[in-house]
Amino acid sequence: MRTSWKVADVVALRDETPTARTLRLRIPGLHGHLAGQHIDVKLTAPDGYSAQRSYSIASALPGDELEITVDELVDGEVSPYLVRGVSVGDQLEIRGPVGGWFVWRADDPSPVQLIAGGSGVVPLMSMIRAHELAGATTDFRLLYSARSREALFYRDELAALSASPHLRIDYVYTRVAPEGWHSPAGRLDAATLASLVHPIAADPGVFICGSTPFVETVADWLVADGYSPDRIKTERYGGVGERP
To answer: Per the database record, which ranges form the FAD-binding FR-type domain (predicted)?
Structure first.
């Protein structure tokens, strides 16, 4: 069930890549949010035309603030404004947080495998931040497929978090690999996936987010390898996207 529309204040902005920006919003009456939830954002033109899009929450903040990270779509109706046009002090019409299935809760003792394609890392980053904030000792792994190092969201924060004894981060670069990287650039394949994720015996909870082709392909590989479909949760962002 969707909540009613509210007015949120833009209190901070941060560029993540040349085409992606994180917006911190203050929402009156908000009392925290779950890791993996999303909000709807609605823009209304002077002539009354409106467009709305859903954006995953990236943060694990208590209280009345949350963050979303928006990747600009060249032909988008909402994302170009959020990435290029919004300023601190502006207000946005939002609805949410929404969602109770694609979420991680700190009281879950299972190891967790996160698999991200491109901007699909956003809700998974919320889970990583919630894991760190809770001081959880469950074994977290993130497999992050991105076009290049420059395309990584939260690059510096993830580099710092990689020192955590309870978080392992693996990257696959599909277009351009960093100089000296251990393997050439190329799409994620079934063999690489199998070598990097939690073993079946660990019975991990799996969260996959990315374009529809990416999510479907990776989920199919995992099921074919013997992972239980009941332990795999998926989230897809709009657009056709590309395969792993």
So the answer is: 3-104
- Evaluated on CA atoms 200, 206, 208, 213, the torsion sign reads positive
The range of the structural domain enclosing residue 50 comes to 5-98
1-5, 164-168, 225-229: the lowest-pLDDT one: 1-5
Side-by-side strand order, sheet with 112-117: 167-173, 140-146, 112-117, 205-210, 232-236
Instruction: Find out whether 124 and 207 touch, Cβ atoms under 8 Å.
Output: yes
Tokens standing for residue 129: 């931040």
Mean pLDDT in residue range 155-177:
97
Short-list 30, 27, 32, CA closest to 11? 27
pTM beyond cutoff 0.85: yes
Which H or E run contains 131? helix 121-134
Contact 212, 236 (CB under 8 A): yes
Q: Which two tokens stand for residue 229?
A: 């479909």
In a shared domain, residues 133 and 93? no
Q: 44 with 7: CB under 8 angstroms?
A: no
pLDDT tens digit sequence for 200-214: 999 999 999 999 999
Neighbour-count burial for 176-207, b at 16+ CB within 10 Å, e otherwise: ebeeeeeeeeeebeeebbeebbbeeeeebbbb
First-to-last C-alpha distance (Å) of the chain: 33
